[in-house]
Amino acid sequence: MSKSAKSATKAKRVGVRAYDSHVFVCSGSVCKKRGAKDVRKALKSEVKEAGLRREVRIDSVGCLGLCKHGPNAIVYPSGTWYLGLKERDVPEVVEGHLLGGEPVARLAADFR
Amino acid sequence: MSKSAKSATKAKRVGVRAYDSHVFVCSGSVCKKRGAKDVRKALKSEVKEAGLRREVRIDSVGCLGLCKHGPNAIVYPSGTWYLGLKERDVPEVVEGHLLGGEPVARLAADFR
């Protein structure tokens, strides 16, 4: 078996969890200054409180650009960009989007 | 207008690009040691070469776990986890998945 086929076989044996939502909170320096850490902390806490710890994964992502609008975050698989996501907006995102399954139109950025 | 409504209005005026694919390459310390930087570099270069620079976004993500299988990466919106993604596998992912639209079954992890 080739080295490459071996590594693929190994990968396939490792099961990954199928999350309902995967949230990426920008950890760029500007977003950090604008409160991204508090937003992430609030997300983690609200997600836990909503009983979604196994359904929702929250990670930090490198600079997403659009720095001056931060703190920014993206939720997949919907591909929703939340720009200027404040700590106070987090419960609405958790309830409406992560629990309810619908991006929060009031907070979601439009696509060009 | 409330402060919160103002910030939402501002976010909505900023257009974000609708990418076909968004790749998150793990930048955790173990994945880094296992070559994640080279994988990311190869991805950027191959994506550019394939003329997909506007269609595909590549970012770094904080530790995704499953460290011993790294370098790891996820591609959205399909939510495909590639574990143990080697530099030599990158052309196949770019051609098959990012250009062709189909996750590369040989390299994609199964879901539990």
Automatic annotation (TrEMBL), chains A, B:
Organism lineage string: Bacteria, Bacillati, Actinomycetota, Rubrobacteria, Rubrobacterales
Record's protein name: (2Fe-2S) ferredoxin domain-containing protein
Organism annotation = Rubrobacter radiotolerans
**InterPro entries on file:** Thioredoxin-like_sf
**Which Gene Ontology MF annotations are present?**
iron-sulfur cluster binding; metal ion binding
One family from Pfam that matches here is: 2Fe-2S_thioredx
Alphabetic keyword roster: Iron, Iron-sulfur, Metal-binding
Is Acetylation one of the keywords?
Answer: no
